[in-house]
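// run 5 | inverse folding | seed 20
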């Protein structure tokens, strides 16, 4: 297992791209926490802090697919780095101006969210050209999902440390500076500079014109709802079981479970098509959430949370493979960005609905939301299964922008498993 990941990371540029992307995504990963801490330090209420964080989230949800489409058209360096700089500058304005005047604070949050670079989708678009072998690409998707879990665990600790040593404003500035450095590290790398998307068919829907993509994002909306609802239910459980660090135990156990599952999943090849495997993993994810309604003691609940997280990273990794196979030609970065955005929006919805459900009924009802949402996610995949039929491998075509090594080389289109021209659209035009 370790040898397989070691070979992957020793591949030229792989470790640099993974590390740079994780650093570049750090501001987005801890934005909600850092904004809330800063707003509270400036004397703002929790309601105001939540509203500012929500504006950032809305901007992020709009900006990620739009910037992903721009990356597919213009390349990574011309979009990623300027976007990272603009987002960081907007956060700097927020840190320096504070909450007054309030319209400036809201505008800064909106701009910061809108221009958050789609580094996550960009990395997944690069993997096929960097790693070459399909089994390594699948392992990289899993490793990326695992690294993301680590980032979401370490990021809040970094913010807390910076606040303790310096200040809330300094935490905002330092974290966003790190994000710009990470984005810079990615876009100056040869794979990022050489990568070009396949020519795309002109259509305003972009990646969303693929029925398979619509199925995927519909399903992942509910997976996001499941994960968001667990966070609120964990806090409510902690209130009934001594408070303190109990909610952190549950959420950390969820992350550790995802880490374990992702490492194991990416360490080997699995039989069958990714489309069929995604349905099985989603089913396992939904079933893993069900025992949470038993509400045992803290130790037992922590163990159940760990088990509930095991299939999260494998499901994400498999979904990225399926996206790669079903995204229309020339829309891969946009397609990955749509999946990430949908997952984040779903998580926000889950957070919003779990609280009223718990307050209006009982704690056990809050823990039924993840299992129910997981079941709906599976139902979507099964009911619309005809749109996610396995896609045959494409014919070998030259990759635009790729440099030959020792002569001409042909390889499959880096990111296009749906290589046929879409019927009803004119060829030769850029969307």
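// decoded
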């Amino acid at each position: 297992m370790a040898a397989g990941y070691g070979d992957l990371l020793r591949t030229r540029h792989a470790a640099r791209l993974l590390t740079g992307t994780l650093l570049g995504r750090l501001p987005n990963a801890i934005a909600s926490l850092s904004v809330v801490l800063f707003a509270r330090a400036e004397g703002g209420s929790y309601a105001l802090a939540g509203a500012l964080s929500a504006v950032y989230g809305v901007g992020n949800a709009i900006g990620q697919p739009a910037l992903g489409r721009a990356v597919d058209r213009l390349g990574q360096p011309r979009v990623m780095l300027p976007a990272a700089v603009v987002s960081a500058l907007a956060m700097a304005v927020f840190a320096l101006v504070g909450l007054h005047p309030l319209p400036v604070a809201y505008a800064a949050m909106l701009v910061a969210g809108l221009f958050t670079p789609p580094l996550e989708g960009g990395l997944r678009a690069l993997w096929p050209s960097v790693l070459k072998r399909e089994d390594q690409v699948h392992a990289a998707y899993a490793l990326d999902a695992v690294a993301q879990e680590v980032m979401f665990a370490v990021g809040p600790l970094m913010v807390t440390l910076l606040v303790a040593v310096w200040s809330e404003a300094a935490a905002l500035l330092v974290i966003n500076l790190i994000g710009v450095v990470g984005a810079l590290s990615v876009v100056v790398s040869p794979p990022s500079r050489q990568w070009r998307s396949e020519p795309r068919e002109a259509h305003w829907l972009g990646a969303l014109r693929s029925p398979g993509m619509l199925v995927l994002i519909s399903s992942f909306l509910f997976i996001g709802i499941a994960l968001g609802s667990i966070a609120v239910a964990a806090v409510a459980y902690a209130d009934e079981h001594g408070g303190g660090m109990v909610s952190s135990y549950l959420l950390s156990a969820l992350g550790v479970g995802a880490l374990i599952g992702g490492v194991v999943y990416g360490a080997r090849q699995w039989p069958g098509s990714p489309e069929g495997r995604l349905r099985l993993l989603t089913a396992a994810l939904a079933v893993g959430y069900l025992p949470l309604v038993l509400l045992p003691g803290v130790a037992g609940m922590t163990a159940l949370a760990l088990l509930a997280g095991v299939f999260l990273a494998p499901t994400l990794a498999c979904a990225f493979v399926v996206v790669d196979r079903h995204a229309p030609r020339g829309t891969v970065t946009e397609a990955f960005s749509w999946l990430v955005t949908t997952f984040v929006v779903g998580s926000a919805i889950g957070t919003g609905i779990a609280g009223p459900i718990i307050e209006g009924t009982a704690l056990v009802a809050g823990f039924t939301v993840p299992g129910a949402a997981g079941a709906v996610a599976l139902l979507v995949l099964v009911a619309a299964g005809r749109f996610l039929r396995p896609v045959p491998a494409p014919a070998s075509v030259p990759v635009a922008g790729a440099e030959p090594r020792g002569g001409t080389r042909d390889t499959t289109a880096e990111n296009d498993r749906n290589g046929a021209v879409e019927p009803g659209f004119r060829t030769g035009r850029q969307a």
